[in-house]
Amino acid sequence: MAVDPPAFWLATARVCLLALIVLCTGWELWWAPLRPGGSLWVLKVVPLLFAVSGVLGGRLYTLQWVAMLSLLYLMEGIVRAWSDLSVVSGYLAWLEIACAFGLYLGAVMAVRPAKQAARRRRKT
Predict the structure, then answer these.
(1) pTM exceeds 0.70 for this model
(2) Could you tell me the pLDDT band of residue 2, with boundaries at 50, 70 and 90?
(3) Please, is 28 exposed, middle or buried when counting C-beta atoms within 10 Å of its C-beta (0-12, 13-18, 19+)?
(4) Whole-angstrom distance, CA of residue 87 vs CA of residue 72
(5) What phi, psi does 92 have (nearest 5°)?
(6) What helix, strand, coil percent values describe the chain, rounded to 5?
(7) CA proximity to 17, closest of 41, 59, 114, 29
(8) Using CA atoms, how far apart are residues 115 and 119, in angstroms rounded to an integer?
(9) Positive or negative: CA dihedral 80, 104, 38, 94
(10) Digit-coded pLDDT (tens) for 42-90
(11) Rg of the chain over CA atoms, in angstroms?
């Protein structure tokens, strides 16, 4: 018996994943790159791209590992919000924190009902 993820949390994970991809790409190429003209830090988007089809499709396995991956972006946002000297970069870091936390929360809460159902099946 398959359990579908709750629509709200799945939508939250989807929106936050796509927003994080756009944010990280724009940040490192145009809005406030570490080096003028863009930087290779834009490659940090690549792991997120591997998750797009799975998260959009609502696959539980992808949601599980993207929740753990989002913590790396959360940490990066915190470090850059604390340490970047540019005001623009500071604001972008806070947006990254919000998107990464939203992705984490959305993914974890979307997977939760399936995990609870599996736990109940194991007990019986």
Answers:
(1) yes
(2) low
(3) buried
(4) 22
(5) -65, -35
(6) 85, 0, 15
(7) 59
(8) 6
(9) negative
(10) 999 999 999 999 999 999 999 999 999 999 999 999 999 999 989 999 9
(11) 16
